[in-house]
Design goal:
Blueprint lengths: L2 E12 L2 E12 L3 E5 L6 H9 L6 E6 L10 H5 L2 E4 L11 H9 L8 H7 L15 H13 L5 E5 L7 H16 L3 E5 L3 H7 L2 E6 L2 E7 L11 E6 L15 E3 L2 E6 L2 H15 L7 E3 L3 H9 L12
Parallel strand pairs: 3-7, 3-8, 5-6, 6-7
Antiparallel strand pairs: 1-2, 1-4, 8-9, 10-12, 10-13, 11-12
Length: 309
């Protein structure tokens, strides 16, 4: 595999508390990979180690083939990665263009500043001072600062926090565009719909350990769990007429839970056709990514040694 990241046995402690304990995962080049976990689970510590901002206590870490803990290689690595934090401090009296031009000058092969401004949807604000931007516009600028260096690997921490629905979708399209160009993206997010829309694979952290690793479709056995089939009883039909066992009834809405959705759907549709019903309003769902996430991590907050996100 052509790996952008390789993490094995990663550990980091703060005093007596083990914030990250034996964390391991790989990320392929061009992949969108998500780290999930409750506050204090160790996500921020893990990402800061990968970015070279924090020294690990143990384990092996390679970022684009470089050990971020090697101070001799770190300056080179910083020119190859982009970082979008939850809050990025920029000078309020600089314009959007000025801030991006200054940051572009740090990198050997930056993107065109005008291209970045257009990509993040700030075309009409290119000459506006930072202090005049709304919170959502400042978040777009954060992303622009993360991609202006044309990074091989981009770290995104809660990329759409503070954005309205339209801006969220624009940001999703941008992330997909970057990945299609070959940029590797490692993101953290509390929005499960965002993770499901963007990430190919997910690692779930809880109390400093990886408790699940896989695709969003298969995480935690999601693809093998029960299917929930909901439908509306046709006129004149009773629950007792149905050809399969029923799990729950709410008025005219019936729910069936089954491990064999194909057979259940065949039985239901055959029964409906025999009764001359043109539609049942069938809806088939499995456990959501959020359901799996809460099962894996619980609904509480992990206790960190220091503030974690």
């Amino acid at each position: 595999m052509n790996l952008a990241l390789r993490v094995a046995g990663l550990a980091k402690s703060y005093g007596s508390l083990r914030a990250v304990d034996d964390v391991a995962f790989d990320v392929e080049r061009g992949e969108v990979f998500a780290l999930l976990g409750p506050n204090g689970a160790g996500k921020s510590t893990t990402i800061e180690v990968l970015e070279g901002f924090l020294r690990r206590d143990a384990g092996t870490v390679e970022v684009l083939g470089v050990d971020p803990g090697d101070p001799r290689r770190l300056p080179e690595l910083r020119t190859r990665i982009g970082v979008v934090l939850q809050e990025l401090a920029v000078e309020p009296y600089f314009t959007v263009r000025q801030v991006l031009e200054r940051n572009a000058g740090i990198y050997p092969r930056p993107r065109s500043v005008d291209e970045v401004i257009d990509l993040v949807g700030l075309t009409e604000k290119r000459d506006a001072k930072i202090k005049r931007l709304s919170g959502g516009q400042q978040r777009r600028l954060d992303i622009g600062l993360g991609i202006v260096g044309n990074p091989e690997l981009l770290f995104l921490d809660e990329p759409t926090t503070g954005l309205d629905p339209a801006a969220r979708r624009t940001t999703w399209d941008l992330i997909r565009h970057l990945a299609s160009e070959g940029t590797t993206v490692v993101m953290s997010s509390h929005y499960m719909d965002e993770v499901e829309a963007l990430a190919g694979r997910v690692a779930v952290l809880s109390r400093g350990r990886v408790v699940a690793l896989g695709t969003t479709a298969t995480l935690g056995g999601r693809d093998k769990g029960e299917a929930r089939i909901r439908f509306t009883l046709p006129d004149g039909a009773a629950v007792s007429d149905l050809p399969i066992p029923v799990s729950r009834v709410d008025g005219d809405t019936v729910e069936v839970r089954t491990a064999n959705e194909v057979d259940a759907l065949h039985a239901l549709t055959t029964w409906a056709q025999q009764r001359g019903a043109s539609s049942l309003g069938l809806r088939v769902t499995r456990e959501t990514l959020e359901d799996i996430y809460l099962t894996l991590t619980g609904s509480g907050v992990d206790e960190p040694a220091r503030s974690e996100s």
